[in-house]
Amino acid sequence: MFDLLVAGATLPDGRTGMDVAVSGGRIAAIAPRIEGEAAERVEAAGRLLSPPFVDPHFHMDATLSLGLPRLNRSGTLLEGIALWGELKPLLTVEAMVERGLRYCDLAVSQGLLSIRSHVDVSDPTLRTAEAMIELRERVRPYLDLQLVAFPQDGYYRSPGAVALLARSLDMGLDVVGGIPHFERTMTEGAASVEALCRIAAERGLPVDLHCDESDDPLSRHVETLAAETVRHGLQGRVVGSHLTSMHSMDNYYASKLIALIGEAGLHVVANPLINITLQGRHDTYPKRRGMTRVPELMAAGVNVAFGHDCVMDPWYALGSGDMLEVAHMAVHVAPMTSREGLRAAFDAVTVNGARAIGLAGYGLAVGAPASFVLLQAADPIEAIRLKARRLLVVRDGKVLARAEPQTSRLSIPGREGVVDPSSYVPHAAG
Ligand SMILES: [Zn+2]
Question: What is the reported pLDDT for 428?
Answer without folding.
Answer: 80
